Amino acid sequence: MDVTGAPSDAEVVARVLGGDSEAFTLVVRRYEAGLLRFAARMLGSRDAAADAVAESFVRAYRHLASCREPARLRTWLYRIVANRCKSHLARRPIADVSLDEAPAVADAADTELNLERAEQLALVQRALVRLSPEKREAFLLKHVEGLSYEEMAAVTGERVPTLKMRVHRAREALLQVLEEYE
Amino acid sequence: MNAIDPRIHQALDGELAPAALSAELSRVVERLVTAAALLAAPLPLASLESRVMAAIRRPVPSPARRLLRWLATPRAITFRVRPVWSLAFAAVVALLTLFPLGHEGPDIGEHEGIAQFVGRFPGAQSVHVVGSFNDWRSGSIALEDVDQDGVWRATVVLPTGAYEYMFVVDGERWVPDHLAERLVADEFGRENSIVIVRPARR
Amino acid sequence: MKLWLGLALLAGPLAAQSAEARLEGRVPGAAIPAVDSLVQRAYAEGLPTEPLIQKALEGGAKQVTAPRIVAAVQVSLGQLRDARDLLVHGGDEPPVTPGEVTTVAWALRRGLPGPVVQRVLVALPRPPRASAMHAVADLVAHHFDPDSGADLIIAAIGQGVVPERLLDVSAAAAHELQRGHTHAEALALVRQELPNVPASPKPTRSAVARARRPAAPTPP
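Structure tokens for the assembled complex are given below, as produced in the milestone run.
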């Protein structure tokens, strides 16, 4: 959705906290695509991602008053979704994110991608699920969601040097896995 | 894992101009950039707006009640919203406690508690929970699907303690509790779930 | 593997009678002599034997081959020895009780580093420690740093939270994560509230009414 000219995050938060709960639709429209993509890549499942993001939005709404920096609503939302993804993964055996299940995000429903791109995506997604959740999270936040290291620190609660190290390790592991498959 | 040339990281972190890289290093950078671009493609997923707003418009229980509900039925929340039939999941919801005497049901001893096992196994003919609480003997604790909605349950009185367990579906398929928060390697290549039964009389 | 029940009561008699009777018909015959030998060795070393028997029974139930069952029981015996060594280093007077060895072995299996286990042992010089170990392991399962998780539980012990309530402390920290706080914030929030943490709720009346005792195991 084109949100040009739309109220800022801080204004939307103020409206919702002021009693205009319907204004929260602006938050959902503004951020759901990125959050869904992030969760789907983290979890390797669109259904699980939709559940995680929907629950996260509801939680965010109910705890909006505890968002101390409404101007940084985006990173706060990513933090909630990241926590839910990690909880989901923690409850799920490693084998559950097997290579067989990994390409779930690149199936025939990806009509916007041609076959070759779908195959490439399936390959990358396979490589991605081989990373630990921490490395996967770091790579996705940095290179797919385009967050700065400082924003990533706000999302994960980790220090910037730690996150840099994770991104570096994720790149190395990803390259290695991609080479194995190619 | 092999470390890669630090200039690749510098280029990807915007600390080094891509033009400063050799052709070989540029190819590695390109490979990672392409991978990220593929992952960044929009997903054809339905909007969550109506679902989220419907949940928001429902009356909100008090914080204390929400906390109580969360603590009491954490996995039931996930359970309700997960539509994927193939993802067998289950939960150990209850943890025991003191109850006034005179209720129906078994008397619960001082060193006993209640564990509730819940799993979604559509189409299953039988589901049992097997673990260190019953000497890994299948058949002693059967789950039931009373309303035939594919959700199988068993509520069991157990001595207090920590136990490992798995579900056995149709007498042959061993399935872990996918939503158990506590998991441990079983030394046979899989993971057991853990339930901690707390003393009833706390 | 009951933590809070007297494993000490079970370990001796069972080993003395040999584990064979319990394993017969439940575990491949080829595994029984080796498992029995490992059980006897554990008994001789003053270690609990029930975890070894349970591991063998588990392997039999899962239809695992004899060599893998024996290997898994050997791994379990190694964990019990590691646990005993940690207890002795942590200050427990030998012979350490089988119940405490089992508790610490659980903690190691759940991924707690040895030094973290030792810190908890020092904070809780006397049993029961099972709740404390599981509380720290629960925090680690939620991706809290093991040392920070141990800090929280040790702080709770220091502020008088009774062992039986320590699992409520780890549950409260996990709850703060669900509310969108970072791990550091979640720890700080719970710590700030200590020794007050929400108690886990009572089960519903219908759950109690439904509760059944499992059928008694069929004698072998």
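The CA atoms of residues 28 and 65 of chain C lie 7 Å apart. The radius of gyration of chain C is 20 Å. Further analysis is deferred to the final report.
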